[in-house]
Specification:
3 domains, mainly alpha, 278 residues, Serine Threonine Protein Phosphatase 5, Tetratricopeptide repeat
Length: 278
């Protein structure tokens, strides 16, 4: 600041001097040029001179300024640390939100699956109710009474049973069914009754009387659910529904065979048959 205070007055004086001497002669002009060169040299010297030493009176202000700058830097570092910590917490919160969203999506999918299973169960229940209603109608229909004939004399219940089954298998299902009906009347508590009822159903099936075949096979399943003929009777029920062009109920019955009697041979056959009708 001291250097400028010296330079600017000198230049101002020089400018005033030049303005006042504009009308001087050539010799005066030459002297003015010499003086200008000298002034320029002085200005150059002043510009290259080292800056004046700081005033001791300003030392306290400088220390205060330095302390203020240090405090500001410390505050800036602290704010930056707080910002980094807040950014970290925000990232953690974002990750947690993503995990919560993923769990919510999984729960929504599980709920949809449960609802789908419930709807399927309801549909199966409705189909079973329709089957039961159809069986009930078939049971209520009158069955033609057979023409009574003089029964032959049998040496044993086993002989009577074997002859009746042979008649069903041998192309005379009506005669075999009548013999089996006589067996059931004559020996109602015999151990062969489950087989007798099953072969009656086979006789109806062979006669293409599929409604009565379904009813007779159902009698086997209802009365002897744990017997050896129950799986076969249920499987033949499914075939009878197929013969009636009722593939929906046929599929339901064949699925039930696999569920109720999974280890039976009838379950294997039912599985293959279901694949064919799908």
């Amino acid at each position: 600041m001291t250097r400028n205070a010296v330079v600017f007055p000198v230049i101002g004086a020089f400018a005033a001097f030049m303005a006042g001497c504009a009308v001087m002669d050539t010799g005066a002009f030459t002297r003015l040029q010499d003086e200008m060169v000298g002034l320029k040299k002085e200005v150059a010297v002043l510009r290259t001179a080292p800056p004046p030493a700081p005033d001791p009176a300003d030392a306290g202000g400088l220390q205060s300024l330095r302390k203020s700058f240090a405090d500001t830097s410390s505050d800036f570092d602290r704010v930056r640390s707080d910002q980094l910590a807040a950014t970290t917490r925000m990232d953690e919160a974002r990750d947690e939100m993503q995990r919560i969203t993923a769990r919510q999506d999984a729960q929504d999918r599980a709920l949809q699956e449960i609802r789908g299973n419930a709807e399927r169960m309801k549909e199966i229940e409705n189909r079973l109710a329709a089957i039961e209603g159809r069986i009930g109608k078939l049971a209520a229909a009158p069955v033609p009474a057979p023409v009574p004939e003089s029964p032959p004399e049998w040496r044993s219940p086993e002989e009577m049973y074997e002859v009746a089954v042979g008649q069903v298998k041998g192309g005379n299902p009506k005669k075999g069914r009548e013999t089996l009906s006589d067996f059931a009347v004559k020996y109602p508590d015999h151990k062969l009754i489950p087989n007798v009822l099953y072969w009656k159903g086979e006789a109806f099936y062979a006669e293409k009387d599929f409604e009565n075949a379904i009813l007779t096979f159902q009698d086997v399943v209802d009365r002897y659910p744990r017997g050896d003929k129950a799986p076969d009777a249920m499987f033949k029920q499914g075939l009878a529904f197929l013969a009636l062009k009722d593939s929906k109920n046929a599929r339901i019955v064949l699925d039930l065979v696999q569920k109720k009697y999974p280890k039976s041979k009838a379950a294997e056959m039912a599985k293959k048959k279901v694949r064919e009708i799908r």
